[in-house]
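Sharing a chain and its predicted structure for anyone who wants a worked example. Both blocks are below, sequence first, tokens second.
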Amino acid sequence: MKKISIGSLLIVGFLGTTAAEKKDRTEVSASPADTGIFVPRPASVEVADLQELLELKNMYVRKYDLSGIRDTTLRVVFQVDEYFGRDSMRTLNRSVLGDVYARWDSSYLSSLKFQFVPKSDSTALLFCDLEDRGGRGTLLKFRRAAPDFKIYNSYEPKPFKSSGLKPGNMVPVMLFGSFWYDAELSKHFGGEPAYRFCMENEMEADMRNEAFDWMPHYWIVRIGLEKRER
């Protein structure tokens, strides 16, 4: 009986091993390439995905690193200029945002953030935030789009190429500009109104980009440094 029991165990063990090996071989061979079945797996949502979601709602956030400024005598100012083409400009807002160095907690600023938030089909709020040192909001009023003027223009932000900051100078950092009507493109689409926006990833500080010749309406956000009041 003892031999029979041992033999039975060996047989059962052999059969179990064979079944396991067969299962392993089956799992290895059942690849998506063989079966045509691809299983989607959850992936982490990244910051870029959230930004894309915001921009689908015409909400934009742009942030700039200012952590390299270490002069305790300076403060940050910003300015919003509105343009109706190259040759017509007015300043909507010029404000002091805050000091580079905060006395109350002995800290330096690190970043500056701009937020573009639609308020209606014809307005948006530009909010400029210098961490907890200060912030300013500017209401932006859209213009109606040519040629039929039945709808309001679409607007998008574009950054300017980085320029060095120094006391007394204002440098452009962000464009918020309108699309423009393209007559030739409209002909291509059978007369249906077609609009374009600047294709450059960054705008030139001297505004030599061709897009400035075509945009009928836009705002330029500038920032600068000046001596703080003692």
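Comments welcome. Helices lie at 2-29, 32-35, 47-56, 183-188, 211-214.
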